Amino acid sequence: MPQPHEILFKTLADPTRRAIFERLCRGGDQTVGALTAQAGVSQPAVSKHLGVLKRAGLVRDRHEGRQTHYSAQLDALSPLVDWTNQMGRFWERRFDDLEDLLKRMDQ
Question: Which of 21, 34, 36, 58 might form a disulfide with 43, Cβ 3.0–4.6 angstroms?
Fold first, then answer.
C-alpha cells in the first residue's frame, strides 16, 4: 500500500492537476466552469482531474444548486510537509558529517 506522501506526489505530478490545485489554493472556492476557463483543457478533463484530487484528499466539493464548488484542503499536504522535514533533517546531518570529516582531513 502506498504511503500518504507517495499518493500526494503522484497526484500532484501531473502539471494540469497541480495547476488546478494551485488555483484553488490561491483563489479559494471555484466552480468547474471557472476552473475550466483557466485550465486550457476540456471540462470533462478538468472534472477527471478534480476527481483524482478529491480521492487524494486535496480538494473538497460542495454542491450548490446545479453547480459544484471545489476548495483546496491544505491540511491534506501535511504528509508532504512531514516527509520534506524528515529529508531536510537527514541531509543536514549528512552535510554536518561531511563538514566534520573535511575538518579532520585538514588537520
Answer: 36
